[in-house]
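thread: overnight batch results

M.L. [08:02]
morning all. the overnight job finished for the chain we discussed friday. pasting input first so we're all looking at the same thing
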Amino acid sequence: MISSDLRKKEKRLFEILERAGSLLVAFSGGADSSFLLAAAARVLKDQTAAVTADSEIHPSGEKERAVRVAKKIGVRHEIIHPAETRLDGFLANPEDRCYLCKKNLFKQTRRLAEDLGMAHVAHGANVDDLSDFRPGARAAGEWGVLSPLADAGLKKSEIRALSKKMGLETWNKPATGCLATRIPYGTPITQKALSMIDRGEAALRAAGFEDCRARHHGETVRIEIGRTCFQRMLEPEMSEKITAAFKKIGYAHVSLDLEGRAPGPGRGPWKTRDPRQKY
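M.L. [08:03]
and the structure it wrote out:
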């Protein structure tokens, strides 16, 4: 059951989208951008399009999932190739890595919007993101990228509730994010590391740990899963299976982060550290 307050926020979102006139949505296929795209398609119809970045810094299978979701929503869908690893300074993994990435992405997205005759570009930032460390938000501001979900006052949990109401398959999809975020700031990003992380998280998901992270620390991987999954992970057969999978990938040591994975602003395994080191 949707509360009256949430209905008001939904109405506010539709009004914001209607004022936009036409919209190109930066679309990852995750819960936030899928809901934004579906809402925009409902309001603006064929004046809505989606654009997805196909890149080696994104988990394998994400582009294919985005293509499937966009097709179900019924909008024009473009694929771009940002080539983040070729950006000056990106591979050094500085604290403004996300800014460098998003600046490049929004520059290309803005250019595509102009080619398609779309008045605006929007991304799926929500209210919860505003209290989080998001260097990429600066790039969105610089390129005039709209944040309709945040402007409507929508939180992540509310987006999931509205997505479920709309019948979107992404309503409960865990956030995935960029693979580079699994590498500590200051540690160089390499193709090998990205591949190891991607393969490791794929192994975790295949074993049933959908909301997971494989944090890369050289020869050591630090696995993050929810605390409610600890018992299953520590069953002898499962722990042996996961350890073998990561060692086959190339890790010498496989560890489980005992703080667990707790998504959300200001929470999770970085909570006792400098928040800028959230990765």
